[in-house]
Amino acid sequence: xxxxxxxxxxxxxxxxxxxxxxxxxxxxxxxxxxxxxxxxxxxxxxxxxxxxxxxxxxxxxxxxxxxxxxxxxxxxxxxxxxxxxxxxxxxxxxxxxxxx
Length: 100
Known about the structure:
Helix content is 37%, strand content 20%. It is α+β, with helices and mostly antiparallel strands.
């Protein structure tokens, strides 16, 4: 859980989210047991107000650049403004792994 905690810390410090959920979805993929390679991030932050989805994702990518260059293989990002998150209340489910 080292990588997951680091992701949570960097996003919390970098974006001050009103909601943050980081799920390690590595177990759903063909990776070694206890891997930390596939993550789903659901985040709502004031910093996203007035930004398109791609700009929100770019902010997250910048904050997690080291992890993405290292062992993190996949990152699903669901980034919302606080207002959008309040209206939606949940992120879509991740698809099943097709990689075997």
